[in-house]
Design brief:
Blueprint: H1 2-11, H2 16-46, H3 54-74, H4 78-103, H5 108-136, H6 140-168, E1 185-189, E2 199-203, E3 206-213, E4 216-221, E5 235-237, E6 240-242, E7 249-251, E8 257-259, E9 268-273, E10 278-283
Helix pairs in contact: 2-4, 3-4, 3-6, 4-5, 5-6
C-alpha cells in the first residue's frame, strides 16, 4: 500500500519532466563537446572501471559522516562534529556527481523519480553546507536544526533512491538471473553468422547474440546489462558491439565492458557447429 501511494504521489510530479529533459539535453551537449575525455569521466562516475555502479557506494559516506556529526554534537565534541559535517559535504558532492552520470541515461517515470531524488539530495547538501557555515560563524543554535532538516531531506531522498532500484531496476544488471542453456542447443544457421554480422537468436528463455570476429564464432547475451537494450540492433566494429540505446560497448569475445554506462559484463556462451551446419551454444 505504501508503494502504491508513493507511485501516485510521484505521478503528480509531471511538472519535472520538461525540466529534466532540458537538463539532459544540456548535459548531452557538454559530453559531446568534451569528446573522449568527457566520456571517460562519465565512465568513472558510472563505475564502469569498478564493475559496479559507483553512486550507491558513495552515498554511504555522507550519510555516515552526517550521522556521526549529530551524535558527536550530543556529547559536546563540537570540533569533531564540524569535521564530519564538512567531510559529509565533500562526499555528498561526489555522490551527487555520480548520481547525475547515472540519471543522464534514464527516461520516462524513472527519469522523473531520479530528478526528484536528485533535487532532494541537492537540498540536503545545501542545508548541510549552510549549517557548516553557521557553525564556523559560531551560530550553532541555528546550525543544528538546519542540519537536522537536511538529514531528513537526505533520508527522504534515500527512500526515492531505493524506489529507483527496487521499483524500476535502475542500474541493476539486466543479465543477473540469466543462466543460459546447460546443454548444447541450436541457436541458428552457421551460414547466417558471417564476419561482422549481428544475429539475434532465442534459446529457450535466453536471448543470444551470434557473431563472427576474425573467423571466431562468438555467442553472448543479446541484452545490454545496463538497461536491457537489444545489442543485435547496434553496430559492431573491431570486435566491439555498441548498444543502440545508451552507447555501452562490449567485447563480443569476452563480454567485457569497453565503455559505459554499463558496469556489468555480458554472459558469454561456448559454441560449436553440428553436422548439419547449425550453431549450438551452451553456458560456460
Amino acid at each position: 500500500m505504501a508503494i502504491l501511494n508513493a507511485d501516485r504521489w510521484l505521478d503528480r510530479l509531471g511538472f519535472l519532466d520538461p525540466l529534466a529533459e532540458a537538463y539532459q539535453k544540456q548535459v548531452a551537449a557538454w559530453l559531446t563537446r568534451g569528446g573522449a575525455g568527457a566520456r571517460a569521466a562519465k565512465d568513472v562516475l558510472n563505475g564502469t572501471w569498478l564493475g559496479h555502479p559507483l553512486h550507491p557506494a558513495l552515498t554511504d559516506l555522507p550519510l555516515g559522516a552526517w550521522s556521526g556529526s549529530m551524535l558527536l554534537d550530543l556529547v559536546g565534541e563540537e570540533v569533531a562534529a564540524d569535521l564530519l559535517l564538512g567531510l559529509g559535504c565533500v562526499a555528498g558532492t561526489a555522490a551527487a556527481a555520480a548520481g547525475l552520470a547515472d540519471w543522464q541515461d534514464s527516461y520516462g517515470q524513472e527519469r522523473r523519480v531520479g530528478a526528484a531524488h536528485g533535487l532532494l539530495n541537492l537540498a540536503a547538501l545545501g542545508a548541510m553546507a549552510s549549517a557548516l557555515v553557521l557553525r564556523r560563524a559560531g551560530r550553532r543554535g541555528w546550525a543544528r536544526p538546519l542540519a537536522l532538516g537536511g538529514y531528513g531531506l537526505a533520508a527522504a531522498s534515500g527512500y526515492l533512491g531505493g524506489h529507483l532500484v527496487f521499483r524500476f531496476g535502475t542500474q541493476v544488471n539486466r543479465n543477473a538471473f540469466v543462466e543460459g542453456p546447460s546443454e548444447w542447443q541450436v541457436a541458428g544457421d552457421e551460414k547466417l553468422v558471417v564476419e561482422g554480422a549481428l544475429v539475434a537468436s532465442q534459446v529457450g528463455a535466453t536471448r543470444i547474440l551470434l557473431t563472427r570476429v576474425d573467423g571466431r564464432l562468438c555467442a553472448l547475451s543479446n541484452v545490454c546489462s545496463h538497461a536491457g537494450g537489444p545489442l543485435a540492433e547496434g553496430d559492431l566494429a573491431q570486435g566491439v558491439v555498441r548498444c543502440p540505446w545508451h552507447g555501452s560497448r562490449f567485447d563480443v569475445r569476452t563480454g567485457a565492458v569497453v565503455e559505459g554506462p554499463a558496469t556489468a559484463p555480458l554472459p558469454t556462451y561456448a559454441t560449436r557447429v553440428n553436422a548439419t551446419g547449425e550453431v549450438e551454444v551452451r553456458a560456460g
